[in-house]
Amino acid sequence: MSESVENGADDKVVIEQRLLKIDEIFVYRIPPMRSADGHRADDWNLAKPLSTCSLIVCRRDNDLCINIMGERPKPGAPVGAVETFLFAQSNVQVDFSNPSHKIDHWVNPVVDSSRYFAVRIKDSQTGREAFIGVGFRERTDATNFRMSIEDYINSLKREEKAAALHKEFEQSMSLRCQSSGESGDAKLEKLPLPKSSLSLKEGEKLRINIKGTRANPANKNSPKIKKGIIGMAGLKKPPPPPDAILASHDSDHQGPTTTNNTNLSDVDWGDFEG
Predict the structure, then answer these.
(1) Ramachandran category for residue 212: left, alpha or beta (phi over 0 → left; psi -120 to 50 → alpha)
(2) What is the pLDDT of residues 38-59, one digit of tens each?
(3) Which residue, 97, 149, 166, 256, has fewest beta-carbon neighbours within 10 Å?
(4) Which residues neighbour 49 within 8 Å (Cβ) at sequence distance 6 or greater?
C-alpha cells in the first residue's frame, strides 16, 4: 500500500509505501553489547519483555521507517477501549557512499537467534539514540521483517543505478548537441536511443526447442491405405486343408475308375484255371 503526502512548505509530494505490518512483537530493554561479536538475546531476560506492541515498516521517500506501535486506554471512552500510539521509531537513512550509514547502523540481528533484533531508535525531542530489542513470536514474522529491509536496500540500489544511467545518457546527448551546434530538443529527436548489447558472452549457449516434425512433400502423392486392410495387400491366399486336397483328388479319379470297371465286366475273359 502506498500513499502520497504533500508538504505545504516545499510543495513536495512524498510517497509513503507500507512494506510490512506485524500485529505482535515483544520489546526489550537491552544491556550494552559485551563483545564485538554482536548482541545476544540470552542477555535480554526474554521472559519479561518491556512491552508487547505491533510493528509497521514503511518507506517514506528514500527513508525506511520502522514504527513500533503501542496500545493504551483511550481517554473518555468506555472501559476496554484502546488507542494506538507511537511507542518508538527508527528512521533508517541508508547512504551507500557513507560507510557509517549502512543498514547495520540501525538494525542488527543477534548472534544466537534468528527471531530477535537490536534496533536503533531516536527520540525526536531530545535527539538521543539507543538500542532496544525486538523479538518475534513466529519465525516467519522475523523472516518477513528481514526481507522487507532487503527489499528496501535492493530498491535503493536499482534507483541509484537507473539515476547513473540517466545522467550518463544526458551527458552524452549534451556533448553531441554541442559538437553539432544544434539545439537540444532538435538533436534529441534525431539521435537514437543507446542500444543494449544482445550478443552472447563467451561460454554462453543458445538453445532453440522446436516442437513438431516437418511435413514431407513426398508423402502427399503416396497412395493412402484404407483402414482395416493394412499389411494384407502382399499376402497370397492360404492353401486348402489336407482333407480338402484328398477329397478333390478322389473326385478327380473316381469317375474314370468306375467306367473302367464297368468296361472290364463286359469283356469275355473265357475260362480261367489257376
Answers:
(1) left
(2) 899 999 999 999 999 999 999 9
(3) 97
(4) 26, 27, 28, 135
pTM of the complete model: 0.59
Q: What does 75-89 look like in DSSP terms, one character per residue?
A: TTS-TT-EEEEEEEE
Mean pLDDT of 122-132: 87
Whole-angstrom distance, CA of residue 159 vs CA of residue 165:
10
Q: Record the cell numbers describing residue 88, joined without a space.
A: 518508538
| CB neighbour list of residue 65: distance below 8 Å, 6 or more residues apart | 56, 57, 58, 59, 89, 90, 91, 92
- In this structure, what C-alpha cell is assigned to residue 169? 545518457
Non-local (6+) Cβ contacts of 101 within 8 A are 93, 94, 95
**Which cell numbers in the block locate residue 66?**
520502522
The three grid cell numbers given for residue 264, joined into one nine-digit string: 472290364
CA dihedral 32, 38, 42, 43 (to 10 degrees): -10
**In sequence order, what are the residues at sequence separation of 6 or more whose Cβ sits closer than 8 angstroms to the Cβ of residue 184?**
173, 174, 177
Task: List, in order, residues 6 or more apart from 145 with CB less than 8 Å away.
Answer: 20, 22, 55, 57, 117, 136
Average pLDDT over residues 209-227: 60
Sequence-distant (6+) residues with CB within 8 A of 28 are 44, 45, 46, 49, 50, 132, 133, 134, 135
DSSP state of 140: H
Residues 6 or more apart in contact with residue 26 via CB below 8 angstroms: 46, 49, 51, 52, 53, 133, 134, 135, 136, 137
